[in-house]
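Page header: ASSEMBLY MODEL / three components / 744 residues total.
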Amino acid sequence: MSKAIQIRGLRYRYPDGTQALNGIDFHLDAGESVALFGANGSGKTTFVMHLNGLLRGEGSIEVCSMPLSDETLEQIRSKVGVVFQDSDEQLFMPTVLEDVAFGPLNLGLSPDDALTRARTVLKRVGMAHALERAPYHLSAGEKKRVAIAGVLAMDPEILVLDEPTTFLDPPTRRDLLTLLRSLPQAKVVVTHDANLARALTTRAVFFDQGRIAGEGDVIELIQRFHWEYS
Amino acid sequence: MHIPDGFLSTPVWATLDVVSAPAVAWVARRAQRDTQDHRIPLLGVMGAFVFAAQMVNFPVGPGTSGHLVGGALLTVVLGPAAASLVLTAILVLQALIFQDGGVLALGANVFNMALAGVAAAYLSYRLWGQASRSGAIFAAGALSVMTSACLALGQLLISGVPMTGGVFWASLGLFVVSALMEGAITVGAVRAIERLNPAWVAGPQPASSRTVAGVALAALLLVVLGTLIASVAPDGIQRLTGQGVDSTSWPQRTMGGLAGIAMIFALCYLGGKLKSRRRSA
Amino acid sequence: MHHLVIDRWSRGSSSLHQRDPRAKLAALLVFLIVLSTTRPAAQWAFAAYAIMLIIAVHSARLPILGLAGRAALVLPFSATFALLTWWSGDTLRALALAEKSFLSGMAALLLVATTPLTGWTAALESWRAPRMLILVIQFVYRYLFVIAEQAQRMRWAAVCRGSHKTGGFRLATGLVGVLFARSWQRADGIYHAMLARGFRGRFVPAAPAPFRAADALFFSACLAGCLAVRILL
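Prediction written out in full:
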């Protein structure tokens, strides 16, 4: 099976000297969904910031068989769609439609095509009614949907979701889960939520102090690391 | 102090709009030049931060409290051009959405706060930053507020808003108190920010051009003082603007107003011509 | 909250909402200039301006009292100076001062209550306002309430732990410091989110809507109305 992501020996040290990642080997198959577990500060978010080159550590990163470098950076950023934990940071344009069109415009689409594509994906995530709304006025669940639309509009092959269900109430979580399961892309899901991981992914990777402490079947890993609070 | 519409006489607001518009364009170009692109969201978020920080009450004495104005803080953190631009953006939003300051008076408010106020803060920080950093930041905060407030007062007086001597001196006293408060609050805020991450606040630049900064600051303060003196000497105003408070009839004033508008259009037209010529060249 | 109402108003569908933002902004400037140059003795002119505004508000299907209440935010400042003027014996001028500032505020409010922020910023930009300024305005507005709410929550948290008794200058500076730090980190987060969606240092503007005959007609009507009142009354 072809690899969507292949990473070997990734290390990253923050400018203040903290060794956040200390030799990570990771792979993701096309269409596969993987959960990333680990305590706060174990390096999960630092790790996903490497998947589209927002951070650049030592080691080799290949995305869709392309090695990450300055030349491939733009292509890789369109292949790897990152949905950030805080939707308010992701939705920065004045209206929902403009926000979703932001990525396609950067890809070089004409304004008309970008808006058409934005409308299509907003319909896909069930937000077609809010095109002219200001992101500030949306509910947390709606913001998350628009953030996902903004990423889908780039037509990515891999979705990276950083704590997609925090701040959402149970019914909204359920609806979001339905949406995420219907998306065909390979997924990397950073989460503390064992239920979400079980429902959305098959394999899991456990981070501990910048290393991978274990990986395998998601249900088995949750048991091995006691990754549930009840 | 944001001046609403209806207070400034036409020559005053028209002149300041004409002065401020190209100044803001220049500031925007400068801010763009020394800004890496990651600073675009930073400038916006910093503007929002100043709005929010103004909600925090600072107790400054028994029963009194003040709040941050923020011009000097932005100048110290972002540099003068970016600070001017952010303050201009805030003033535009305040005028249109929050009914705080007028639309025609925007030029005056931008001139007082975003241009002159920031210049006063920047020059103070530059001039005294090497000698005593806290002192320089205090002066930056105090002088920026004092400059803005005195200019606003002068513009109101020149526009013929009547004011008794008592009110005038009371206003000046109030300005001094707010200026001292802004100085103290700015020092406190910069120290608190530096404790969290020293890299967020740029150090004062090397003192190579201290003389220039000193002369510029002196000139700025003289202009402020001059505005105030001109505004309280009615003969001076009459000579300056040809418009006495009581003595002119309305046709004369209207003519003055129309001349002001014509002047704006002429200057805008000329500005546009020059710009398009430079673009095509 | 104040802004929420204005945002809701600005999404209306009346014919005034549909006019090109450039036409409305130009009409606002004409109105303000005419108002500003009206002499205090022409009290009938002020009444006429008020009627023009009421007609516009009505045709935009906006609540006149709601708008007037918000425009009245300028009144404390105006009233102070109006009183000073009145004491100095110039009743007409005092009246005109309050009227001018109130009507100006009302007119500006009418623009933002019928035009979303993106509309009037696009109009400013088409008049060559610096792009950098427009972007900063949009970002400030976008994050204004997010960060203000953060400040509010921090204040509540401080009050819950008894800040009204012990809290002083240092507490306030600490609050501002933390607020600054979180704003700075938020800006970093936003920049990362922009890069993740292919940002290359330049915002690509969307195409502006065309200026229609109805927009030109609207502006001409405003211009004619304002000038007629100014000259005749």
